[in-house]
Specification:
The structure is a homodimer of 167-residue chains.
Chain A: H1 14-29, H2 34-44, E1 50-51, H3 52-59, H4 63-75, E2 79-82, E3 91-94, H5 98-129, H6 134-164
Antiparallel strand pairs in A: 1-3, 2-3
Helix pairs in contact in A: 1-2, 2-4, 3-4, 5-6
Chain A binds a DNA duplex (30 and 30 nucleotides) through residues 33-35, 51-53, 61-68, 70-71, 88-90.
DNA sequence: CGGTTTGTTCAAACAAATTTGAACAATAAT
DNA sequence: ATTATTGTTCAAATTTGTTTGAACAAACCG
């Protein structure tokens, strides 16, 4: 049976909706699922902490999505749990400092890739030594060296980046 | 009818394969399709420029994929056309300077998002003025201001980033 | 010309990522 | 103890993104 809704409960109002969309776009840039953007976005404009059911109701997405989304956002240090003595539920607050958000993203999403790239490049360099033709070997070595230079430059840049986002 | 293959033609050898995989991973980090990584990766370890059919044969992917992939890579300035007087086909060479690659990616994939975000944040700021409750209005304005600060910081960072990748 | 080569386009097929929802565990309330 | 509440898990369903391949256009060749 459909029930009446007041203007603030079940349907996102226009501003909330626009804000959430901006974050969905932001998530897309970062290669994160839309639900992550929705959840963080709603939290970002909420004047009070929110619990799982609030996201389900106001975003109209499943409990499962919200649970997984919050887990990922916790991993990214983009949300924090807030304890509330009076309530069994876990409430969440957004982290809103760009530096911290960038730090979490770099740690969780960027560094692991670079770490695995390091290994794979080393493997490749070894294999390249076994090549017979000196011409080919030289060329390949130069290319592998090039990628590794990229990797090093970029890795060194990450902390600088985070620092520059500090203010 | 299956035909015999020599060891350099149809099947990627082990090193080529490993190198291509590294680039497929790289593409994933950047949110680009695997085929883009394959194409650029193969080109990166090729001592000579390659034409469309070379990619089709050596990567075993369709002509359509290669055509679209090369178009995107051209847009990103990650590959360059090389003219060859003796041949009708268009050959490609990779751009291998990190600075240039980063520049292309920023221009094509990052800036457009920021540009559209700018508009959407402005719209949002206008809408926020129409809110009646002064408390809510104040809070929302602060949040919108916060996002816009993020946007400005990040936008200002892009050229610096590119510069720092210069060596 | 008519045939061949080269490359593009785009709807359909396919693959991968995301979301759902029902089953479940854990804890609290009665 | 029994029921209600809160949150998790994960296989299946759905959605989204990627690749394919056949049809086509353009340029060249004999």
């Amino acid at each position: 049976m459909p029930r009446l809704q007041n203007s603030n409960s079940n349907k996102l109002d226009s501003i909330e909706h626009q804000m959430v969309n901006i974050f969905v776009d932001g998530a897309r840039i970062l290669g994160l699922p839309p639900s992550i953007g929705e959840i963080y976005g709603l939290l970002f404009i909420s004047p009070t902490p929110l619990a799982l059911d609030d996201f389900v109701e106001r975003l109209g997405i499943s409990k499962g999505s919200v649970s997984q989304g919050l887990r990922m956002l916790k991993g990214l240090r983009a949300v924090r749990e807030v304890e509330s003595a009076s309530d069994r539920r876990t409430y969440y607050e957004p982290a809103i400092e760009l530096k911290r958000l960038a730090g979490g993203f770099i740690r969780e999403q960027v560094r692991p890739h670079f770490k695995s790239a390091e290994t794979r490049i080393r493997d490749l360099a070894e294999k390249a030594q076994e090549i017979d033709d000196p011409e080919s070997r030289k060329f390949l070595r130069a290319r592998i060296e090039r990628i590794d230079t990229w990797r090093r430059s970029t890795t060194k840049l990450l902390p600088i980046l985070q620092k520059l986002l500090g203010q």
